[in-house]
From TrEMBL:
The chain crosses the membrane at residues 23-42. Signal peptide: none annotated. InterPro entries: c-di-AMP_regulator, YbbR. This is YbbR-like domain-containing protein. The keyword RNA-binding does not apply. Keywords: Membrane, Transmembrane, Transmembrane helix. It holds the Pfam family YbbR.
Amino acid sequence: MERLSHDYKNIRNFLFGFLNKDFLIFLFFLALSAIFWLMMALNETYEREITVPMSLTNVPKNVVLTTEMDSTVKVTVRDKGFTLVTYMYSRRIRPVRINFGAYANKQTGYGLVPTADIQKFVYQQLMGSSKIVSVNPDKLDFYFNFGASKTVPVRMDGSVTPGKSYYLASMRFWPDKVTVYASKKMLDSIRYVKTEPIRIVNFEDTVIREVPIARMQGVKCVPSTVRIGLYPDILTEERVSVPIRAINLPEGKVLRTFPSHVSVKFIVGASMFRTVKADQFVVVVDYNEVTKQTSDKCELHLVKSPYMVRNAQLEINQVDYLVEQQ
C-alpha cells in the first residue's frame, strides 16, 4: 500500500509539474478553438439527403397489393448545419403514413401519390427554416386488385452450360407453378412467368438453386421464389444397326442394298442409352435419286432419329444396290 501511495504521488507530481501545466493549458485552448470552429461550421447553410420511411395504411382486407409502394424516399433538404444534424441524428423524422383510400383508384387498380403530396407530408416534420430541394423517387405508386388470380407454369430465364462431355438431362422446379395476382387484362395476357436471369456453367453434378421470379409491374407472384434443379448426365458415343428402307418405289419394283443394314453412330446420355432402339431411326434410299444417277452405288439418308440423341450420323453414306422386277 505504501508503494502504491508513493507511485500515485509521483504520477500526480509529474502531471501537474511546471512543464505539464503548459501542456494542459494548450489542450484546453485547442479544445475551445475546436468548439468555436464547429459552431461556426454548423452555422453555415448546407444540403443533406435525409431518408424518410413511408408506409401505406388502411388497406382493406379484400385488397391484394400486386406491386407495393416504395418503403422510403430520399429527400434533399437545405438548412443550417445545426438543423440538419438534428434531422440526421435524432428521431424527429418519423415514418409517413399514407392513407390507401385517398389515392387508390378502384376502377384501374392503381394508386399514385404525387410529388407535391410527398413534400407536404415531409414539410409537416421539418422546421420552418428548412427547404426541400429534391425528392427521390419523385412519386410513389402502387398496384392492387381484389383477389383476381390464376396459376401459371414457371420457366427458366438465362443460360446453363454443363461441363465438357456432359449435357443437361433434365430440369425441375419446386413448385413448377405459381399463383399470379393482377388486373383482369394482365391476367389474360400472362401464360407463364420467368425466373430472374441465371447463368451456371461447367457443372458436372446436380445443382439446386433458389431463384426469384422476375418482377412484373402490377403483378404479384405467390410464391415469389422457386427452387430449380439441374441434372447433368455424361455423354457417350454409341452405335446401332439400322435396316435400310427404299422409298418412292413404283409398283412391281424391288430395291435391294448390300449390305441391308447400316451402322448409325450418335451421342447420348449414359442414363438414356438403354432407351434408344434401332427402330427409332429411319435410313432410306430414294428410288427417284437412283434412276437419275449413273453410279453403281446409291446415297443413304438418315431421315429420323430419337429426340434424346445428338449428332446422329451414318457410318457410310453409299452402298451397292440392285433393282429387281417382281
